[in-house]
Amino acid sequence: MGVADTVQRIKRELIHMQTNMRIEESIYKKKSKVQWLKLEDANTAYFFVSMNNRKAHNQITILTKEDITIIRRMNKIKQKVVGFYQKLLGQNTRHMPAAQPEVFKVGSRLNKMQQLKLIQTFIEDD
Do 53 and 71 share a domain, yes or no? Predict the structure, then answer.
């Protein structure tokens, strides 16, 4: 068995172990939720206070702009957040510019051997 085979086997085992850990964590979370729901029946007031605290914790009630001014009104906060992400991701457009296939046909291209070398598995030398 070569070094490449050993590396591939270790990678597969690592992926398998990570998958099992995620499954196990998911099971624990689900069990926790079931226990929490059972507690809800016994302690409704505590349950609703906890849910309201969680909801309040997950809300943006104050936003500080780049110029240090503070925004408190929800509609202004929404506008600022949406504007930020639109600027970050770009605007909607009906026509997405794309490369023309003719452009790719002009000039030098990789031969079959060079293409295969590009997709070859990378092995780190000691």
Answer: no
